[in-house]
């Protein structure tokens, strides 16, 4: 058997056929050549396996791993990890690609002592047009940031190979299984090293699994006795009348939060960055579109709860998000409470 490679790249796929070729080619052209690519075919029923076999015939570093149908990428990723031999595991989804130096950028971080690495990214539509690029705040990391948001898609991440299994491995669910795994790794004391360079190119499409995630959990924001009052609060929030106040509150809360996190040893800036994050926070607040797209009114023990839908994969995660939000979004939540209270104090409309 040949010596173990430095990197094992795990790529789950299903019925991708020839569209998989650019993904495979983006690994084959890596400037760091010491890798193996395990393409785990999740019960594909088209010619995907033949496409992978043809690529493997040209490049023996590529391996086809045939798996029974899971219908979810976590199972294939675990199968790929089980067969991997590399020192480091990197992930590449079958509709994403890498810049030619992606593995070399990761290797530099690992050789500096990193255990878990994430890079910046570009997001592109199906035609290849760039829809967005990760900004600086997207590669600033702290356990609390990891808790509150689904950071780092799999194609941006690599780690020392045993670490995923030691944290419980990839778990199937409604979606955002990457967020779930990274959070469990962080809970074990692992810390991301981040790189701002945009070395991963991700498909930005409403048909991807991330956009189809079912949101089963909620962040409570206000409680009303009357469903009409709850609905009125929701409409006021969406009217735009309070947007500037909420943006100012967001900036103030976020600047304070980042300043507090920065005083802890767990705060991670991208490699080489030392500047002020305040302008980045202000810019993000200004870029925000509709501020309240995910609000719902739901009955709750005889009352009516105005809540924000959460992406969290588990109820325990949602509980932790609720507790942390109360500590870091104080101005925003106080403003929201003021609006809800003013709605509740208004007299009932007179009906004839």
Q: Could you describe the 3D structure shown?
A:
This protein has 352 residues and is an alpha/beta fold. It is built from twelve helices and twelve strands. The protein has helices at residues 21-28, 48-58, 74-83, 102-111, 143-148, 162-166, 177-187, 227-238, 243-262, 278-287, 315-328, 330-345, and strands spanning 7-13, 35-42, 62-67, 88-91, 97-98, 116-124, 130-133, 157-160, 192-203, 217-224, 295-300, 303-310. Strands 1, 2, 3, 4, 5, 6, 7, 8 and 9 form a nine-stranded mixed β-sheet that branches. Strand 1 (7-13), helix 1 and strand 2 (35-42) form a beta-alpha-beta unit. Helix 9 packs antiparallel against helix 10 (278-287) and helix 9 packs antiparallel against helix 12 (330-345). The chain starts with 6 loop residues before the first strand and ends in a 7-residue tail after the last helix.
What keywords describe this structure?
elongated, 352 residues, alpha/beta
Task: Report Rg.
Answer: 23 Å
Q: Provide the β-strand percentage band.
A: 15-25%
The helix/strand order is EHEHEHEEHEEHEHHEEHHHEEHH
Distance between the termini: 87 Å
Question: Shape, please?
Answer: elongated
Total beta strand runs? 12
Helical content (DSSP H or I, runs of 4+): 25-40%
Secondary-structure class: alpha/beta
Give a quick account of the main beta sheet: strands, pairing sense, barrel closure: 9 strands, mixed
Low-confidence blocks of residues: none
Number of helices: 12
Q: Averaged pLDDT, please?
A: 93
